[in-house]
Amino acid sequence: MSKKEExxxxxxxxxxxxxxENKELDVSKYLAKREDLPDLGEIVMYDYxxxxxEAKAQGKEVLGxxxxxxxxxxxxxxxxxxxxxxxxxxxQVYADTIFLQKMTxxxxxxxxxxxxxGDTSARMHEVINQSISxxxxxxxxxxxxxxxxxxxxxxxxxxxGLNEISETMNQKNVTEEDKEEGxxxxxxNLNNMIDNYLKNKKD
Length: 203
Prior knowledge:
Elements: H1 3-21, H2 48-71, H3 75-78, H4 81-116, H5 122-159, H6 162-173, H7 176-181, H8 191-202
Helix pairs in contact: 2-4, 2-5, 4-5
């Protein structure tokens, strides 16, 4: 018999001996009772997909209103394939940021509940402090990201000359009577005037 086989036999014999010696043992005496366990509350399966879809919708809404604010007075530019693709990508990146914020907050709340349930170790408090720092970083990143998006579309408006066109058309079409009455023109109503202005400029 090889050493390996001897070892296996010894282990089997030891296991059988332990079983024989403890077959009268009442295991229930050593199990935790329900009343001794912390109240973990009702276990609910978290719907991550719903959060992802909600973040996507929120990202699209933010980008849609942002682009409308800077480029909404010229639908032709808004409908340009590049702008449309850029909006789609920016909305997805912003949605991912929103989702990460949600998950960090969810994780943080779980940690706080663990402390409420009795886990007051120094390590747990360290983890909570790290989560607080992460939440702050996420907020700063989200704000800086939105600022970068605003900067891009604002500069796009400037590069396309929309500011100058709107100012020129406003000055050209506001009558003295309108000025006296303090009438305000909506830039969206200038689309036709802008088209005419561009045609006349080419001529």
